[in-house]
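Whiteboard transcription, Tuesday session. T.W. wrote the C-alpha cells on the left side:
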C-alpha cells in the first residue's frame, strides 16, 4: 500500500473506519475482477479517495459482500462496488504504469538489470492499456493522465534555481483535478465538477510536494532530480505551500453539494492535514543547524517529570512538549488526533451536533460521539 492518506484507527469512528475499508477493498476487487491478480498490487490509499467522492455525492452506497481475505484476518466484509471503484481502479493503473515506466527507464533499484527493466516496461504498457479500458467503460478518458505524465520530463528540464516548485507539480495537479472532477459526472451532480476539480488540483499539489520532501535526503545524496533542490525551495516555503493547499481543499469542499460528506471530509481535510504534519515531522530540514544532543534523563526522573506533565495537561493541551526522557519535541495528544476546538465549529456544527451549534468549543471529540453525528473530528 502507498499514498499520503493513511488514517489512524483512533481518528476514525467505527462506522467511518468500516466505510474506509469498504472502499479500499472495493478498489482491490475492481482491479482483480477486471484485470487479474497482478493488477491488485496498484491498490493504494490515495486512489480510494476517488471512490469515496463518488459515493459521497450519490443517493445511496453500493455494496456487496466479499469473501474472506488474509488482510482482513480471513473475515468477509461489505465492499464498495460500481463506477466509483472503477474510476479509482483506472486512475491507479495509469498512474502506477507511469511510475513503473519512469523507474524502468532510469534503471532505478530492481530495474537496474536490463532484463528486469524490460519486464517493467511491459507491465507498465499493460497497466496503461487496462486503465484506459476501464476508464472508457465509465466515460473517463485516461489520456489526460498520460499526457500530464509525459509533460513532466520536459517541465523538469526547464526548471532552475529561483523558479517556483509549483511549475513541477502542475502535471500532477492536472491529473488529480480531472479524476476528482469526473466523480461529479458519475454521481450525476455536474454542478460539483468545478469545485471538485479545484480540490483535486490542490490535493495533487500536496501529494507531489510531500513526495519531494520524503525523497529530499536520498535525492540530494544520489543527485536525482527533486523539485525542491532544483528550484532552491526552502523547507519553510514547501511547508507554507502545503498548508495553503490543504486550506484550499477545505474551502473547495465547502462548495460541493454532498449527500453524505463525513468520510470525504475526514480524509480530505483532517487526514490530509495530518499527512502534512507527519511528513514534515519525520523528515527534518537537512540544511537546518542541528541542536546539541542533550543527556538523556534516567528512568525514575523521567517518570516523575512525565507524571507532572500529564497531570498539568502539558502532554494533551500543548501543541508541542518536550519528551520527559530524551527532551525531544513531540506533538500533544489532542493536536495529534486533530480533535481540539477547530473541528467542533467546522465539522460538527455542519452535521447537526447540538452540542457544537454556533461553533461552541465543546472541548474535544466527545461531542461527535454523544450526538452520533459521526463526523470523526
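and on the right, the sequence the group agreed on:
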Amino acid at each position: 500500500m502507498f499514498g499520503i492518506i493513511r488514517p489512524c484507527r483512533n481518528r476514525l469512528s467505527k462506522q467511518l473506519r468500516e466505510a474506509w475499508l469498504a472502499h479500499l477493498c472495493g478498489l482491490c476487487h475492481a482491479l482483480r475482477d477486471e484485470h487479474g491478480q497482478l493488477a491488485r498490487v496498484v491498490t493504494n490509499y490515495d486512489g480510494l479517495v476517488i471512490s469515496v467522492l463518488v459515493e459521497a455525492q450519490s443517493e445511496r452506497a453500493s455494496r456487496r459482500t466479499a469473501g474472506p481475505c488474509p488482510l482482513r484476518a480471513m473475515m468477509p466484509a461489505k465492499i464498495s462496488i460500481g463506477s466509483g471503484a472503477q474510476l479509482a481502479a483506472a486512475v491507479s493503473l495509469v498512474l502506477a504504469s507511469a511510475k513503473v515506466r519512469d523507474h524502468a527507464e532510469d534503471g532505478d533499484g530492481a530495474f537496474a538489470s536490463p532484463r528486469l527493466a524490460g519486464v517493467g516496461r511491459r507491465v507498465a504498457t499493460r497497466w496503461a492499456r487496462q486503465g484506459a479500458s476501464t476508464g472508457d467503460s465509465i466515460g473517463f478518458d485516461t489520456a489526460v493522465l498520460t499526457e500530464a505524465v509525459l509533460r513532466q520530463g520536459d517541465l523538469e528540464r526547464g526548471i532552475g534555481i529561483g523558479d517556483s516548485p509549483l511549475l513541477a507539480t502542475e502535471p500532477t495537479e492536472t491529473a488529480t483535478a480531472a479524476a476528482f472532477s469526473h466523480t461529479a459526472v458519475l454521481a450525476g451532480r455536474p454542478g460539483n465538477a468545478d469545485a471538485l476539480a479545484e480540490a483535486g488540483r490542490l490535493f495533487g499539489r500536496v501529494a507531489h510536494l510531500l513526495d519531494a520532501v520524503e525523497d529530499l535526503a536520498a535525492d540530494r545524496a544520489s543527485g536525482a532530480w527533486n523539485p525542491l533542490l532544483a528550484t532552491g525551495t526552502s523547507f519553510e516555503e514547501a511547508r507554507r505551500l502545503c498548508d495553503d493547499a490543504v486550506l484550499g481543499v477545505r474551502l473547495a469542499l465547502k462548495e460541493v453539494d454532498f449527500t453524505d460528506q463525513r468520510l470525504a471530509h475526514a480524509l480530505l481535510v483532517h487526514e490530509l492535514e495530518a499527512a502534512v504534519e507527519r511528513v514534515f515531522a519525520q523528515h527534518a530540514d537537512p540544511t537546518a543547524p542541528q541542536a546539541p544532543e542533550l543527556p538523556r534523563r534516567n528512568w525514575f526522573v523521567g517518570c516523575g517529570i512525565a507524571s507532572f506533565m500529564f497531570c498539568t495537561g502539558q502532554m494533551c493541551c500543548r501543541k508541542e512538549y518536550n519528551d520527559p526522557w530524551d527532551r525531544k519535541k513531540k506533538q500533544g495528544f489532542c493536536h495529534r488526533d486533530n480533535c481540539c476546538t477547530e473541528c467542533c465549529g467546522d465539522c460538527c456544527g455542519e452535521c447537526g451536533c447540538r452540542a457544537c451549534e454556533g461553533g461552541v468549543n465543546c472541548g474535544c471529540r466527545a461531542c461527535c460521539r454523544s450526538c452520533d453525528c459521526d463526523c470523526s473530528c
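Someone added at the bottom: The CA atoms of residues 98 and 150 lie 9 Å apart.
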